Amino acid sequence: MPDSIAHFKILETLGSGGLGEVYRARDTKLGRTVALKVMPPSVTNNPAKFDALGDVAQRLTRLSHPNIAMLFEGGQVDNYYYLVFEFVQGEPLASLINGRPLQVRRALEFSINLADALADAHGAGLIHGDIRPDTIVITPKDRAKFMNFGLAAFTAGGAGRLSTAAPYVSPEELAGKPADARSDIYSLGAVMFEMFTGRQRARGLVLSGLNPGVPAELEQIIARMLAATVEHRAQSAAAIAAELRSVAAMVDTRTEAAEAAGTAEPVRHRPKGGKGKAVFIVLVVLAGLVAAWFLTRPV
């Protein structure tokens, strides 16, 4: 690779995939760090695929949401065709979970972030198409952010999505039907299940059975997101986001009540032995001495 492409100075290689080599680069015009993806011949030499990618990219540049890695622009210099994305620092959600459930309130906040992002994108006629813990990054400010939004048809993960039959793939996709916004909702439900349990969703696993700390109201929301048929599934990411906010408010209220109760707990649950028993004996002795004084005092 050259030291720079157009006005982007190459800083380091980040990896490669279906969209080609990915570099951390410096936008010398705007003074910001970006993720520069240089298209491979498998895309640029395929007119149908290249045109389809161009159409999606054009729509993605108009999509701006704090929980979606933004596509800034695309271009060509010499034989290099490239896409310029927001450079997102952080940790993949898959690494953060790593077989352990996240704290309920934190996982709820991530779920709200992602549902909000889906609502915005779905409203613009775009679907993600490959939602899983590996395509979500948790930023240093503890915000969840979708990566490669709308590019599933061109990424390695998206290409192998159906062959893996992973728990994030909706039943209609496995049946060979095209994905739509409700397929994204199913995939997000599967990711949420994993955030709250530390386990990939599978037949026979019950969310509350794996994590009793999950509110029943939240379990019901996830169950609707994971309905096998699209007709019975939750239909709107915006509605899900609103429901999740209600659950979050309820969890906050319950937490505050529990903390208040915890402050009073030592008083209500005084120990029956040890120091408590000694104090009781002292009080009995004092009461006896007082009674004896009353009985023996001169009249």
Explain the overall architecture:
With 299 residues, this protein is of the alpha+beta class. Helices cover 47% and strands 16% of the residues. The chain contains twelve helices and nine strands. It has helices spanning 41-44, 47-60, 93-97, 104-123, 156-159, 161-164, 171-174, 181-197, 207-210, 216-225, 237-268, 275-296, and strands at 4-5, 8-17, 20-27, 32-38, 71-77, 80-86, 91-92, 136-138, 144-146. The strands form two sheets. The chain has a six-stranded antiparallel sheet, with helices on one face. It has a three-stranded antiparallel sheet with strand order 7-8-9. A hairpin with a 5-residue loop joins β8 (136-138) and β9. α4 runs antiparallel to α8 (181-197) and α4 packs antiparallel against α11 (237-268).
What is the average per-residue confidence, as pLDDT, rounded to a whole number?
A: 87
Can you tell me the residue ranges where pLDDT is under 50 for at least 5 consecutive residues? 263-299
CA(first)-CA(last) distance? 111 Å
* Top CATH class of the largest domain: Mainly Alpha
* Annotated CATH architecture of the largest domain: Orthogonal Bundle
- Name the CATH homologous superfamily of the largest domain: Transferase(Phosphotransferase) domain 1
Query: How many structural domains are formed by the residues?
Result: 2
> Beta-strand percentage?
15-25%
What radius of gyration results from the CA coordinates? 28 Å
Alpha-beta classification: alpha+beta
